[in-house]
Design goal:
Helices cover 27% and strands 14% of the residues. It has 10 helices and 15 strands. A 7-stranded mixed sheet has the order 7-8-9-6-11-14-15, sandwiched between helices. The protein is globular, with a radius of gyration of 25 Å.
């Protein structure tokens, strides 16, 4: 479509043409007819994609402008092979240019959904508070993960547990465990995403479990869908392992360390069948898209031919398929959907301490430079996410944890966690070389993410 300036320039061009007749009127006429025909054909193709559940094309027929409607119903002529860690591409070709045509993509961007607040709760500073924080003790939570239990694994400086997030011109709603349980009574709260979202889920379970008698609570065995249940409130707090949101060969919650990432970019069906009945959904996806190129295996591909695309481009495709599910399936009156923005890493200390060559290892205090932004938060990715979420503003609330977490270089496990593989002598002699500067100690930063969730609920 033309905006007003484009239209004015076009009209001026037409006036100029009337004053100075074209040299080749027949060629110009033929060109206009070709453009008109192409436009009509494209509009007709888009309409067919939206109307037809079976819109597949063979690989050879794909053009750079092909739009693909996500597979939400599973009503295909031939059920695609389920991806698992043993799946392989028969061959790999260049990205064909397919895009996801999702319901609502044509809407004008309206900005991220903002609650009617008197101030921005995501803008503030960290305040040391050893009176009201931490909100629970690491040793008192039987569901704590060894990857996040930093004190248990040797971290003696506990200052990371005592920082409270303070918005600039207002206060966060004070955490109240009983009030949170009342909000959850008779409901399913589900976190969907990667290990960072699992950390937020563990944080929420630790925040909630203390008031539930041991014989009235239960935790299902670790699986793709893990469920904490509180009988008194007929409520569950669940975690669904779906690090890429779309179906992938990394959907095993344990065995997912693979050299080759394969996804079905047009299908969230495998995961949505598990999350669609939850009452409150908290999604995230980010880290896994920064691990190099991704192999795309489209749902209608029958010969195992994959396309290769960079991580951010693949993420945009998958978020389109996810957005289509949100647009077509979510009634915001009945279901609350939240999206947690990227969790930053702190891999290069030179970014906050010029001249140094370390990482988060040994860090004991937050960064005190307001507005600090390191390389652990990718701005182009943030822009991609914002572009999609802005068109879902009536159905998705954004929990923007990125800036506030950027300050917390001290909050990572570093070397104080359980490592699943034996450490080599050269690693042990150089702690920064194996420090975890991605995940977060608990109690710690993810507790604040959950305080924000409580605030908005």
């Amino acid at each position: 479509m033309f905006n007003q300036n484009q239209l004015q320039r076009t009209m001026q061009g037409w006036k100029w043409n009337r004053k100075k007749p074209p040299v080749f009127p027949l060629l110009v006429l033929l060109l206009l007819l070709f453009v008109a025909f192409s436009t009509l054909h494209s509009e007709h193709s888009i309409q067919l994609i939206h109307e037809s559940p079976d819109h597949g094309h063979s690989h050879q027929e794909i053009s750079p402008t092909t739009l693909v409607k996500p597979n939400l119903s599973g009503h295909l002529k031939r059920a695609p092979e389920v991806l698992d860690r043993f799946s392989r591409c028969n061959s790999t070709v260049e990205y064909s240019g397919r895009k996801i045509a999702w319901l609502g993509d044509s809407r004008r961007s309206s900005g991220w959904r903002v609650r009617p607040e008197s101030c921005d709760v995501f803008s503030g500073k960290w305040v040391f508070d050893n009176v009201s924080h931490p909100l629970y003790n690491e040793s008192d939570c039987p569901y704590m993960s060894d990857q996040l239990a930093c004190h248990k694994h040797g971290r003696s400086d506990l200052g990371y547990q005592y920082w409270r997030w303070q918005p600039h011109n207002c206060n966060l709603k004070r955490w109240n465990v009983r009030e949170m349980w009342e909000k959850l009574r008779g409901k399913r709260l589900m976190f969907v995403g990667d290990s960072l979202n699992r950390g937020q889920w563990i944080s929420m379970v630790c925040l909630l479990q203390s008031v539930i008698p041991a014989d009235m609570r239960s935790m299902s065995p670790n699986a793709q869908l893990t469920i904490f249940r509180a009988e008194e409130y007929n409520a569950t707090v669940e975690f669904l392992w779906a690090p890429l949101l779309a179906e992938s060969n990394s959907d095993d919650p344990v065995n997912h360390r693979l050299d080759e990432r394969i996804i079905r970019p047009d299908s969230v069906l495998r995961h949505s069948s598990l999350w669609e009945h939850a009452d409150i959904l908290v999604f995230n996806t980010y880290l896994w898209w920064r691990q190099g190129p991704v192999k795309l295996l489209w749902t209608d591909e029958e010969n195992g031919v994959c396309e290769e695309l960079d991580g951010r481009g693949a993420m945009e495709l998958v978020l389109g398929a996810w957005a289509d599910w949100v647009s077509s399936k979510v009634d915001p009156v009945k279901k609350h959907v939240f999206f947690v923005t990227m969790s930053p890493t702190h891999l290069w200390s030179r970014e906050w301490k010029p001249g140094s060559e370390g990482n988060c290892y040994g860090e004991k205090d937050p960064i005190d430079l307001e507005g600090y932004w390191g390389s652990g938060s990718d701005l182009p990715t943030m822009s991609t996410v914002e572009k999609i979420l802005s068109k879902l503003s009536s159905k998705v609330s954004v929990i923007n944890v990125t800036q506030l977490s950027e300050y917390r270089k001290d909050g990572h496990p570093s070397i104080f966690r359980k490592f699943w593989e034996p450490l080599r002598p050269e690693q042990l002699s150089n702690p920064p070389s194996y420090s975890d500067c991605i995940h977060w100690c608990l109690p710690g930063v993810p507790d604040v993410w959950n305080e924000l969730l409580f605030h908005f609920l």
